[in-house]
Amino acid sequence: YLSWSLYTKNENSSSADNDIYFYEDKYFKQTANLDFAQYYWQPIGLQTKRDGSQDPVTFSGHYDGGKCAISGIYTSPGSTSGVNDYQGLFGVVGGENQDNIATISNINLTNSCVQGNYYIGGIVASTNNAIITDCNNYGIVRGLYHSAGIVGYPQANSVIQNNCNFGKIDGQNQYIGGIVGSIENIATLQGCFNWGYVKGEECVGGIVGMVNANYDITIFSCLNSGNVYGKAVVGGIVGKIANGTLSVKLSHCGLENATVTGKSVGMFVGEISASGIVENCYAVVENDISPYQ
Asked: Which pTM was predicted?
């Protein structure tokens, strides 16, 4: 229902429409397992129409998956610019401002393959004024840029908390992470775990691919136990801390029994080109960090 409803609103909207936020203050609770394998999946909340024009329709409500399973989510990889961006179980999620926060919680995504071009997330493609908590991804995620197991591209005032990725993250280019693809605005990432294999080309991290230091960003108490591979700028926790003058804090994070392979490799961070603090982090690694061959 939610997928079809927002898809219809998106296709019938125009650039003159002021209201892009839907289901504010509405609560949805899942009470049984759901299987969508026989359907083509349209993300809940869309950024673009089928013709590629930008008329976003944002899910601004509250969805509680009830720890039930959602399976059979398959999105088309495609190649059309814009149309195959913002792919996930949810596409665009967020409230209108800090006083209207959208929430996604308690989802188990299984037997699925979410794929596309830019901003690809197993649970959510992109967030703004949103909290994503207690969600698990067991499916495959495949994207070009800003792609990850939980949220591809969290934006302003996003909290990503207590989420786990168990699925393979098959990134085709830059900003690829086990939990989050890239963070380029005010955000908090806390208590998240990755056990999936993470692969990309550049700026690849077990938890986050790239973090932009133009904003106050905290990454706290996260653990990576998945192998990480990239051709350049690869980190066990974060691929790259880039740009900006504000500080990115990476605190109380761990790397356990995972290999990190590539050029410009770091146990915790592959490359720091801005102000970054790494404190109270630990590693238990069976194999040495190895150079890219």
From this structure: 0.90
